[in-house]
Each structure stands twice: as structure tokens, then as C-alpha cells.
Design goal:
Elements (H helix, E strand, L loop, with lengths): L9 H8 L14 E3 L17 H7 L3 E2 L7 E8 L10 E9 L7 E6 L19 H6 E7 L12 H13 L12 H22 L11 H15 L4 E6 L1 H12 L4 E7 L8 H25 L1 H6 L5 H14 L2 E6 L5 E6 L1 H10 L4 H15 L4 H11 L1 E2 L4 E2 L7 H11 L7 H12 L15 H7 L20 E6 L7 H10 L3 E6 L12 H13 L1 E3 L3 E4 L24 H13 L2 H4 L7 E4 L5 E6 L3 E12 L2 E10 L4 E10 L3 E8 L4 E8 L2 E6 L1
Parallel strand pairs: 5-6, 5-7, 7-8, 8-13, 13-14, 14-16
Antiparallel strand pairs: 1-15, 2-3, 3-4, 4-6, 9-10, 11-12, 17-18, 18-19, 19-20, 20-21, 21-22, 22-23, 23-24
Helix pairs in contact: 4-5, 5-16, 6-7, 10-12, 11-13, 12-13, 14-16, 15-16
Length: 678
């Protein structure tokens, strides 16, 4: 099965969970105006006077094990909301944080991206304004087939298929399915995947049709009815915008307001969406590479070369001959592998979702340009969630690879006709993007998989643009969103009867919750004060460096390239922090990694924050660290007490205060006493 990126959510969930740590760059409230036909008073109650805490208790609610801020309730829903004769039911779990003050109603989070992202285990309350928490019952859910709501999984089948995809490569022709043999292999692989996955799930194939987005929208409405509200507010992000729009189409009279963030154009077919994403990923990658070329530090790391040319040269090289590698493990052990073009495209695409992700990718590309593939391999292993020591696919416990494909294939069609005709059209369409340009491509080949998925519609799914008369909608968007392209959000906003398009020039996939006044204050004003923007289209101007943020140079080739010992320790601090193994780590338990040029770096959570151990750790040639480090979350101080060996020797005590932006360094280095501060 061709691994695709449609509505991919993993980085979205990671970034949203970290948003509270991002400082705001603007504090003033944007101009706003009253909702049409409404006074300037806060929104009225949208239904009965509900005591949510009492209602949850009545429904048998209890504290969510994964999210103690929420109370979980399991509601038995009809398996098929659209067939009253079908009496089968399915348990769907909702997690609720009741309003802390005067209640306005329910604010439902169609939060999971993907499709396939769990809502409750990924729920995060830190980016909500206090006014929202005061007035709204914030509702998360695990949609049917996910997490706590009767999960559908085929982990064994998926792991085998995914690893085969990452390690497989063309031996003839261009990249892509351009030979009859490759095409037939892809067809048989898709057929086998569908059969094996469904057998592993142990489900009646006919039941898969009841796990699409239309049923999810009805689950939400049934929960609304059980609680007793006439109307709800809903926030949808990424794939969640499909849930929100589907709900709006089915129940426009049940909506008080909607926020769409990273918005999908629901009128597109599967193949149209695939080609839209190909263009968006290519657009984002080119913008990131060009911005690197314009950045002094980034261009210097690229050896003074044009970053786009560096990428294209590496892509062409890997597409012809995959790169054999040895990857460092702890205790100076190594593992061998082959880095394929598929793995390169997968890693590249994954890193385009966030500003820091793009910066870390540029660091890896710069290293690869100098012949060091280790940083790129670190990204591959982290993104693919594969243990390099065992080659085991670990997966993301909050994301269902199985439901990703199932919902995608249940909701939409790829082309029309018989199964054979749809497959043939998919393969023909895929030929247009064979090779290395567009730089991230092949999404349309998902149509082959969907042709074999039992719940895939046999007729083309057609949807009209959403209007939502009388319902105010904020559409949040970014011009450099790779997964839900800017043009799609703009299309949705322009067709809404009462739509407001708020976007960032540059930006990432979803823009709410990063601490910027625009769009966050617009959302708060809408929900808490009942006010809307003065203009229908608003460009956010308070985002700084909205392409990849800032660039952190890689470690140099020699210790002699450092200006002084403090500059050296700054560089180690930065590069350890942005190491993929640590930056994307969940800090749940101890973990050890192999340093690039030998030795081991071990890190673990501590009572104060983080604990680090460096055992003969060489992250650059000729310089070895042995000792300890720690990061105290309470004080914001990162410190290292290390012995230096290799081309230089010494003992250094380094401390950096992130809250003050100051650093100190004491000890002995290269035969001199060191006492420095900055």
C-alpha cells in the first residue's frame, strides 16, 4: 500500500500540545463587530439550563483515565443512524470539561486530525482562553472505531506493509508505477492489504460503511440531544473540518457557530484532493528551501549552495540508487539499512507541517549535503516510529493507521466505473507525477487501495459547497499549509453565507493556539463576547518568521571552528535540544540513543524536568562529552557538567537560563581557566 499524507495529523497533535509554550508576539485585541442581529452582550444560552456535571453523573460519567481534566461517558449509538430497522449499537465515548462559570453551551472539539487521530487521549486545555473555559462545556470525543470507542485495528498487517513501503524502491523506469510489473504488484499489494487487514480486525466487511464521517456527525448530534442543548458550537481542525462541515450540512439549525482550522474542500473527489495536496506540499517545500537560501546561517550550512538545488540533487541521487547506511545505536553498536526514495519523500513531507519541523529538516538536509545522513535517518526513524535497534514498527498510540485508510475510502471516491476501471484511471493519473518533480507526490495511488476497500462508494461522491445560512463561521488558514491547501480553505470561506477568512502568509497546518493574537483573539471574542471581525477577509500580520522560524546551525566539522568555549557550549545546547530523538520525545520514560560519532546519550524525566547523561558522546568529529545535564522546568535553567576529551580536553560547567536569556560557563578548557557569562 502506498503510504499517503492526506489530512495527516500526528505533527498537528504534537504542535497543539506544545502551543502553550510559544510566546505571544501581539497582545492587543483585534477589531471586532457584533454578530448580525445580536447585541453586544455575550451569547445567550443555546438550550435548556443544563447542569453538565449532574448530567454527566446521571450518564455514569467518571474521570477519563488518559485525561483527568475530562469526565468520560460512554453513549450507546445506533450502528447505522440512517436505518431505524437496524438495532445494532456501538459505544462512543465523549470527554467533557464542564464550564467553570456561567454556561453558554457546548463547544465540541472535532479535534482529531487524520482521519485516525484520537480525541480524548490527545485533548489539551492549555490553549483555551479562560473566558472559554468559564462559559463553555468543552467536549472531546473518540470517534467510532478509535481509542475508547470500539477501535478497529490491523497493526500486524499495517506494520508489514508500511515497512515494505519504506524499504522498497524501483529497479526500472522512473519513481512511481510506470512499468506493467510495478502496476500489477501495486494492485496485488492493495488487494492483499485489504483482505489481510479486514481479517485481522475480525469485522464483517459490510459494517465498515458505518464508520464514515456521516455517522460521526450523527453521533455528535445524538450527544447534543441527550445533553439537552438546542444548539452547539464546534471547532474542527484538519480532518475535523470534514466532521464539522458534515455536521453543518446535516444539521445547520443545530449550530450556533463554527471554527474551521486547516480546512478541507469537501466538494473535491479523492483524486482532486490528492493532486491538490501534491501541489501544496511542493509549494511549501520550495518555499522552505528558498527561505533557507536567503538565510545566512542556513545557506552557510548548505555549503553556500542554493538549498533547492541541494534537495533536487539529493533526490535525484537517491531515486537512482538508495543509500546504504550504518546508524549509530547506544554503546557504540550500529545497525545497517537502505535509505530509499520513498523514505526520503516520507521524511520530507512529514517535516513540512510545522515551523520547527521544517528547520530541523533543513539541518538534516545540510548535513546530508556534506555526506552525513545520520540526522536525516534520525528523522526517518522518529517520523516512521520504527525502533532502529529492532526494526519494529511502534506506531503512535493516539493514532489509528487502520482508520486513516478506512475513513478516507469510506467518505470519498477515486474516479468512477468498475473496480478495474477505477484502478486503471488511478494508475494513469499517477503517471503525471512520476519522478522527482513534483517533489512530494504519488498521493493519488491511494485510489488503488480504496478500490479494494469494502466500504468504498461505487458511485462518485458529489457535495455542494457549504452555505450555512445564519451560522457565523471563522475559517482559519495559512498559505503554506501542506495538508489542507490554502486554496481549499479560501474556497470554503467564499461560499459560506456568513464566513470570515482569517489567514497567515506562510504559516503551518492549522493556526489556532500558537499564542498569536491573530487568530486566537478573534476566536475568543467570537465565543466569549459574541463578536465577529470587521472584515470578511483578514491577513494575520503578527506571525514572525512564518516559514521556518529561525535557523540553528549544525555543529561544525572541527572544534577549532568555535569562537570560544561558551559559543561551543551554546551550540551543543541548541543541537541537543533540536535533536529529533529529544525534540519529538514524549518524556515518559528513560531512553538512550547512539551519538553520531560514538558513545551514548541517555535522557529521562526527572522530578524537576529532564535528566541527561553523556557517556563518551561524540556528536561531532574530535570532541567527546562525558558527564551529566539537567533541565529544571520550574526555574527554566538547563545545565551541563561535562568532561571534554578528544582534540581538546577540560571540565566545564555550563548553565543557560531560558527565562532570562543568560548563560554562564566555568571550569578548565584546553589548559586555560574559564569564567565566562553572557
Amino acid at each position: 500500500m502506498k503510504k499517503v499524507f492526506v489530512f495527516l495529523s500526528l505533527l498537528v497533535l504534537i504542535s497543539l500540545a506544545c502551543n502553550a509554550l510559544v510566546p505571544a508576539t501581539a497582545t492587543q485585541a483585534p477589531p471586532a463587530t457584533s454578530i448580525p442581529d445580536a447585541s453586544d452582550s455575550p451569547p445567550p444560552s443555546t438550550g435548556n439550563e443544563v447542569d453538565m456535571a449532574a448530567k454527566l453523573a446521571e450518564l455514569g460519567g467518571s474521570t477519563c483515565e488518559e485525561q483527568p481534566d475530562l469526565t468520560c461517558v460512554t453513549i450507546q449509538m445506533p450502528l447505522n443512524h440512517f436505518d431505524s430497522a437496524n438495532t445494532e449499537t456501538i459505544g462512543v465515548v465523549f470527554g467533557v470539561a464542564p464550564a467553570t462559570g456561567e454556561r453558554y453551551g457546548m463547544y465540541v472539539q472535532a479535534f482529531p486530525g487524520g482521519p485516525g487521530g484520537e480525541g480524548i487521549s490527545s485533548a489539551y486545555m492549555g490553549y483555551f482562553d479562560e473566558g472559554i473555559l468559564e462559559h463553555y462545556d468543552v467536549v472531546y470525543y473518540d470517534q467510532r472505531g478509535l481509542g475508547l470507542s470500539n477501535p478497529l485495528e490491523c497493526p500486524i498487517t499495517y506494520a508489514e506493509d508500511f515497512k515494505e513501503y519504506l524499504t522498497g524502491y524501483d529497479t526500472a523506469g522512473e519513481e512511481g508505477l510506470d512499468t506493467p510489473e510495478e502496476q500489477q504488484d501495486a494492485i496485488e499489494d492493495a488487494r492483499k492489504y485489504a483482505e489481510d487487514c479486514i481479517a485481522e480486525i475480525g469485522i464483517d466487511p459490510a459494517s465498515l460503511a458505518f464508520f464514515g464521517t456521516d455517522q460521526v456527525a450523527e453521533d455528535i448530534d445524538a450527544f447534543r440531544e441527550i445533553i439537552g442543548d438546542e444548539k452547539i458550537w464546534i471547532y474542527g481542525v484538519s480532518y475535523g473540518t470534514a466532521v464539522a462541515q458534515t455536521y453543518g450540512e446535516a444539521h445547520p439549525d443545530r449550530l450556533a457557530g463554527v471554527i474551521l482550522d486547516g480546512t478541507i474542500n469537501m466538494t473535491q473527489t479523492g483524486e482532486q484532493s490528492s493532486f491538490s495536496q501534491e501541489k501544496a506540499f511542493d509549494k511549501v517545500l520550495v518555499a522552505v528551501l528558498n527561505a533557507c537560501t536567503e538565510d545566512e546561517d542556513c545557506r552557510a550550512d548548505m555549503g553556500g549552495e542554493d538549498a533547492l538545488a541541494v534537495y533536487d540533487e539529493l533526490a535525484a541521487k537517491i531515486s537512482k540508487d538508495p543509500i546504504e547506511y550504518e546508524f549509530p545505536l547506544p554503546n557504540n553498536e550500529k545497525v545497517s539499512g537502505v535509505f530509499t526514495f520513498a523514505a526520503f519523500e516520507y521524511t520530507t513531507a512529514y517535516q513540512m507541517y510545522s515551523l520547527t519541523g521544517r528547520m530541523i529538516y533543513l539541518k538534516a538536509l545540510a548535513a546530508a549535503n556534506k555526506g552525513d545522513m545520520i540526522p536525516m535517518l534520525r528523522l526517518m526513524y522518529e517520523n516512521a516510529t520504527i525502533d532502529p535497534a529492532t526494526n519494529e514498527y511502534l506506531g503512535d498510540p493516539t493514532f489509528s493507521d487502520t482508520m486513516f485508510l478506512s475513513v478516507l475510502c469510506t467518505d470519498d471516491t477515486f474516479f468512477s466505473g468498475t473496480q478495474e476501471e477505477r484502478i486503471a484511471q488511478t494508475i494513469e493519473a499517477g503517471q503525471a507525477s512520476n519522478g522527482t518533480v513534483p517533489r512530494i507526490d504519488g498521493f493519488v495511488y491511494t485510489g488503488i487501495d480504496c478500490a479494494f476497500w469494502p466500504s468504498s462508494p461505487t458511485e462518485v461522491v458529489k457535495r455542494e459547497p457549504l452555505k450555512l445560512e445564519g451560522v457565523p463561521v471563522l475559517v482559519l488558514n495559512a498559505t503554506l499549509d501542506p495538508a489542507t491547501p490554502f486554496e481549499e480553505g479560501k474556497f470554503v470561506a467564499e461560499n459560506l453565507a456568513d464566513g470570515y477568512h482569517i489567514y497567515v502568509e506562510g504559516g503551518v497546518h492549522s493556526i489556532y493556539g500558537y499564542g498569536y493574537s491573530c487568530p486566537d483573539q478573534y476566536v475568543t471574542d467570537f465565543l466569549v463576547d459574541g463578536t465577529l471581525p470587521e472584515q470578511r477577509e483578514i491577513l494575520c500580520t503578527d506571525w514572525e518568521d512564518p516559514i521556518f522560524g529561525f535557523y540553528v546551525p549544525n555543529l561544525p566539522d572541527s572544534v577549532n571552528d568555535f569562537e570560544d568555549p561558551l559559543t561551543m557550549m551554546f551550540a551543543f545546547d541548541d543541537n541537543f535540544y533540536y535533536l529529533p530523538d529529544t525534540y519529538y520525545y514524549d518524556w515518559s520514560e528513560e531512553k538512550s540513543i547512539g551519538c553520531t560519532y560514538g558513545g551514548t546519550h541517555t535522557f529521562a524525566p526527572s522530578d524537576a524536568g529532564e535528566q541527561h547523561t553523556y557517556d563518551q558522546c561524540a556528536m561531532m568529529p574530535g570532541l567527546i562529552l562525558t558527564g551529566e545535564g539537567s533541565f529544571d522546568y520550574n526555574t527554566g535553567v538547563f545545565s551541563m557538567n561535562v568532561e571534554i576529551s578528544g582534540d581538546k580536553s577540560g571540565n566545564l560547567q555550563y548553565a543557560y537560563d531560558y527565562s532570562q536569556g543568560t548563560a554562564t560557563l566555568t571550569g578548565e578548557f584546553d589548559g586555560e581557566t574559564i569564567d565566562m557569562s553572557q
